[in-house]
Task: inverse folding
């Protein structure tokens, strides 16, 4: 495992696992959200996103967290291991809500200095909760298909369906 992509629903814990794995393995960790979002919740131009993604994916070892399907040929294709956090809907929803409220209360910045607000969380068409609800089933279908796709037969897939499975898998990794 030298090039690991962690995928899953919003709120599944991709970033948290990526950070822990990075520390344990001594491999740099990178979040695709930082490529996508500019300050003020503006979307970075796609040519810049691709350029930055190629720079990351060209490194000899990495842990990339994120799901941008338009970057699949850049990140997933270059990964040797794909870790899918396939948690139940209610777990991801609860973790998304809890994280967003905590970030709002603590005024924690994310994605290049952006901040969630109660208005954005509960009253905006750009709510992360709405996005999580809209994309949950589609992402699960995509990764269930990917596991069976002959194009990815040389990849190691790790499908984790609970926090307990994730903890056991993490503990089993020998460095």
Result:
């Amino acid at each position: 495992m030298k090039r690991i992509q962690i995928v899953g629903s919003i709120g599944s814990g991709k970033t948290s696992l990526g950070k822990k794995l990075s520390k344990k393995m001594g491999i740099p960790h990178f979040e695709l959200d930082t490529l996508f979002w500019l300050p003020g919740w503006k979307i970075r131009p796609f040519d810049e996103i691709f350029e930055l993604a190629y720079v990351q994916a060209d490194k000899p070892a990495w842990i990339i967290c994120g799901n941008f399907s338009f970057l699949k040929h850049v990140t997933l294709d270059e990964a040797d291991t794909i870790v899918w956090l396939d948690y139940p809907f209610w777990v991801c929803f609860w973790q998304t809500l809890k994280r967003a409220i905590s970030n709002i209360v603590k005024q924690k910045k994310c994605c290049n200095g952006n901040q969630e607000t109660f208005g954005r969380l509960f009253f905006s068409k750009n709510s992360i909760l709405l996005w999580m609800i809209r994309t949950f089933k589609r992402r699960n279908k995509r990764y269930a298909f990917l596991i069976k796709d002959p194009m990815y037969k040389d990849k190691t897939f790790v499908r984790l369906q609970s926090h307990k499975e994730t903890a056991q898998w993490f503990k089993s990794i020998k460095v």
User: Anything to note?
Assistant: Strands lie at 3-8, 29-31, 37-38, 42-43, 62-65, 81-85, 156-160. The first strand starts at residue 3 and ends at 8.
